[in-house]
Structures are given as C-alpha cells and as structure tokens.
Design brief:
By secondary structure, the protein is of the alpha+beta class. The chain has two domains: 326 residues, 2-Layer Sandwich (BirA Bifunctional Protein, domain 2), CATH 3.30.930.10; 88 residues, Anticodon-binding domain (Rossmann fold), CATH 3.40.50. Helix content is 35%, strand content 21%. It has a nine-stranded mixed beta sheet with strand order 1-4-5-11-10-9-6-8-7. Strands 14-13-15-16-17 form a five-stranded mixed beta sheet, sandwiched between helices. Strands 2-3 form a two-stranded antiparallel ribbon. The radius of gyration is 27 Å and the shape is elongated. The chain starts with 14 loop residues before the first helix and ends in an 11-residue tail after the last strand. The chain binds one RNA strand of 76 nucleotides through strand 5, strand 11, helix 12 and helix 14.
RNA sequence: GUGGGUGUAGCUCAAUUGGUGGAGCACCUGGUUGUGGUCCAGGCGGAUGCGGGUUCGAGUCCCGUCACUCACCCCA
C-alpha cells in the first residue's frame, strides 16, 4: 500500500480541528482547577482481574501482549483501561496513606474500548473526569458539586446547550421492587430504551424480559415519563402510590440534588426518571448529559455516586464522579460543523522575508514580537510578496509584517481589511481577539465569513 | 462482536448492456518585473481502498479484506 489510511475507531484531527480540541481541553482543565480539583494521571494499563471484577465479562478490553512472547506464555494479565473511574479507585486504595480526604482530583486521559465504532463512538478516546472520594463517608453535597462544575464547563465552551439529567438508583430500584419486580436491572435496561423504542414496545419488553405484570409495567413507564427541572417530580412519583423504603431514600436524595442545583444554577440540572445509564458500580445519584438538538449521539457526560467501588476490605472510600466524553463532544462539534477555529495555526503574524540575505532582519523582528507574547513565524522562503501573503492567507494568519528597507520603517498589513501601515515591532500589538486562534460557534444561518 | 449500505483525482461527483477513466472546486505557472483574494490562459493530478477470481477485455460481475457509515449490543 502506497498511502496509509485511517484506522477504524482511532480518529486523528487536522491542525485546525486540533485547535478546537485543545481549546476544550484547556477549558476543562481551567474550570476543574478553578474548583480545586488536583490533576493526576494513571498508567494506561490495569490488571485485568481488577478491571473486570464484579462480573462484567462483556467489557471489550484490549489486552497487552509482548510481540515476542512465546505461544505458550500466559498473557500479561494487563489490559488498557476502558475508563478512568476504575483506575482511580485502584489509585485511591493504593495511595490512601498519602492522600487527604475528601480527595478531589481531575484526570484527562485516553481510554480504549474494543467496540464497533460509530459517530461519537471510538476505540481510542479522551475522557475528562472529576471525582471526589471520602474515607468511610462522603458528604452528600458533593453530588451537587460535580454536576455543577461540569455545567460550568459547558457554559464556558462554544457549544449547544447541554442538559445534565439526573436520576437515582435507589429511587428506581425501590420503585421497581415496590411494584413487584424481581430483577430491577432488567427493568432499568428496558426503561432506558424508552426514547428509542417508545412506550408500547418498552411495555412489551418489561413484561417479556423483566417479568413484570401489565399493571406493573404501566407504572414503571409512568415513572419513566416523569421529568422536571424543579422538585415537582417528587409529588408526581408519590402520586403513583408505590411504597418501598429504598424508594423513599432515593426520592429524598434526588430531591436534595435537584433543589440545590436549581438554587445555584437554574436549568443546568433536570430530574429525569428514565435515565439509567452508567456502569453498574453506581449506587445512588446517576448523571447523563444530552446535547440539545443532538440527542442522537447519546450522553456526552455521565457518572454518579459509587459507595463501594474503592475498598481494601477494611476501609471503604465512597465517591462521586462525572466524566466528560471529550472525543464524543468534539465528534459532534467538529463533525457536524458547529464550531471552528479562526485559523489553522497559532501564528498571529507572518514576517515576510525580502531576500535571503536579509532573513536575519526578519528573524529579529519575529524575536521582538515573540518576546511580547505575539505568536509569530517567519516566511519559509523569500518568494514574491504575493506568495508570502498567500502563505499567510491560506493558514488564516491575520497579519503580514514587512521589514522596511534600510532606513525605512517596517509596516504591517491586516489581510482581512487589506489595510497596511507603519509599525514598530517593539510597540505594535494585534487586537487581543487576534492574538491567539479563537474557537467560535458556526451560525448556520449566516454564510461563511469571508476574509475581506 | 452481529447485520445492512457505501468506497472513482486533495475535495464533491460523472463514466451508456463489462469495451483505452471525465468534470467542477482545490493546487501549480503565467498575464501582474516582488503586496493575496476577482478575472483570463495554460498546466499538474488517478496502478478506480487493497488482494484474488471470472472474462479476449472489469471502475462496472464474484469472493476475501480494510475503511467509512447506519442499526443492534454497549456506552463517553
């Protein structure tokens, strides 16, 4: 093969889109650290038995193997991590002696899953997680906190509105048991397909696969239909007349989360009693996030409360966390043309080169500009100025700098307006908005903005 | 992992019943003797994803494979 091709599920961006990606990563880190989450990174591999415990055998994990391993050598027992929560739980237990609790950390890393790729689903992708773990106990208010930190990230990014949907495992399980379900997880799986299959198909599933009576299925569907941005969902659940201690507990917790979130960031968090997703280690609050107008890509950010994930047998470290699917979000933002970078390179200025003999002069100008924090590159060749200008224009570099002839002042040209004027490298500054590439929303109602 | 659709130039697409692969955009050169985008003229550009098969002859038919994509599964 003469030209290498892409690898399914292992996406790569061109420079302009990478600028968008880095903007998202920078924003995520800035907001996380603004809230005091410390950064950690864990190794890419975990022991398989650690990752796959709790009977989750259907996880598609990539296993590590030495190329020259003899055929009869047992595998390494190591696999690439498929999320950041399980490695984090291991990390907490391993380093518990050196950590202060409650421990709040953020972690932005690649993860790998051996699934069949689709839009927004990759085999290698980046997640950005925040988690807070306590020793023995973890205050409830952190369940509100992590969701609102993510909401703040969404607000800081040029993206469609994101809705953090929240539910509670205890509420769901208590309700399902209250109507006589023997296999609450099966009920959850069926209810979760409500959006996709519709109520009548889900009612069939509930009876066929979860073993519910017709009446019980109907009440589960009624529960799944409940949704509110305030605490009015509590009365709606009560009106269904189901009784169970777990239900009471879950309902109270969800009410507290929604009330607190609504008070601090109205509209950011919505109680939605049909969401069920997340891994099976969640024990209470669960989150899932939809991009309004792009619900078809699924959740871009999810997580929840886990009481028993991290434990060394004697001490348990309950936690709550939420994970942003950076790659999935970017897949939508970039793939659907919702955002773009204002240019494809960091350079704000291209310094033209009059002739190779005077290249040093251009380099000097560039050095002065860079010292003042203005990203600058020097033209690669002393081609005709028309070519050098085009070099800049193609890349979206807004300014071209022309060193003056001996004794003459320099000048700088704004490629968008075409205006050119005298300038001194020691004092000239671009408009703040031009200094670095910006990531902006593309408004589909206005045509692509021209360069002039 | 299961099933369906697709795969022609950098991009978007053509190619009559299998009969020597074209166009637009982009790119390069010149008009424009150093200041881009418009216009005009000219030019470069492909072993039709890859491998095999059927045929006198395959972009076109068959098989395999890889990739993209949709649904399922699962989930960020």
């Amino acid at each position: 093969m003469s030209r290498p091709g892409p690898l399914s599920g292992f996406p790569e961006f061109l420079p302009a889109d990478r600028i968008v990606e880095q903007h998202v990563l920078d924003t995520v880190r800035r907001v996380f650290e603004l809230h005091g989450f410390a950064s950690i990174e864990t190794r890419a591999v975990e022991p398989l038995e650690q990752m796959l415990r709790k009977g989750e055998i259907d996880k598609e994990v990539y296993v590590l193997r030495r190329l020259h391993a003899p055929a009869d050598e047992p595998d390494s027992g190591l696999g690439l991590h498929f999320d950041l929560t399980v490695p984090f739980a291991r990390y907490v237990v391993q380093h518990a002696g050196q950590l202060e609790f409650p421990f709040r950390r953020h972690q932005v890393q690649k993860v790998w899953r051996g699934e069949r790729p689709q839009e927004g689903r990759y085999r290698e992708f980046t997640q950005a997680d925040i988690d807070i773990v306590g020793r023995d106990t973890l205050a409830f208010h952190h369940e509100v906190e992590v969701a609102l930190v993510m909401a703040e990230v969404f607000r800081a990014l040029p993206m469609p509105r994101a809705e953090i949907l929240v539910n509670n495992r205890k509420l769901a399980e208590g309700f399902f048991r209250g109507v006589g379900a023997e296999d609450p997880p099966a009920v959850l799986r069926a209810v979760d397909k409500l959006d996709k299959l519709g109520p009548s198909r889900v009612a069939e599933l509930l009876q066929a696969e979860a073993g519910l009576s017709a009446g019980a299925a109907e009440r589960c569907l009624a529960l799944a239909g409940i949704r509110s941005a305030d605490t009015s969902f509590v009365a709606a659940v009560r009106a269904l007349g189901v009784e169970h201690p777990l239900l009471d507990e879950g309902l109270a917790e969800l009410e507290a989360v929604v009330a607190a979130a609504a008070a601090r960031m109205p509209g950011a968090v919505v109680a939605d009693l049909k969401i069920a997703r997340g891994l099976d280690y969640y024990t209470g609050t669960v989150y899932e996030t939809r991009l309004v107008g792009h619900e078809d890509v699924g959740s871009i950010c999810s997580g929840g409360r886990y009481d028993a994930l991290a434990t060394d047998g004697r001490t348990t470290y309950p936690g709550v966390g939420i994970s942003l699917g950076v790659s999935r979000l970017l897949g939508v933002l970039v793939g659907r043309g919702l955002v773009r970078a204002t240019r494809s390179v960091p350079s704000c200025v291209l310094v033209a080169v009059t002739d190779e003999a005077s290249r040093e002069r251009s380099e000097h100008v560039a050095g002065v500009l860079r010292a003042r924090g203005i990203p600058t590159e020097v033209a690669p060749s002393a081609a005709k100025f028309g070519k050098q200008i085009r070099h800049a224009d193609r890349r979206g570099i807004p300014f071209v700098w022309f060193p003056g002839a001996a004794g003459e002042p320099d000048s700088v040209k704004d490629l968008r307006s075409g205006e050119q004027g005298q300038a001194d490298a020691g004092t000239w500054s671009p408009p703040e908005a031009d200094r670095h590439p910006r990531v902006v929303r593309v408004d589909p109602t206005t045509p692509e903005e021209g360069t002039r």
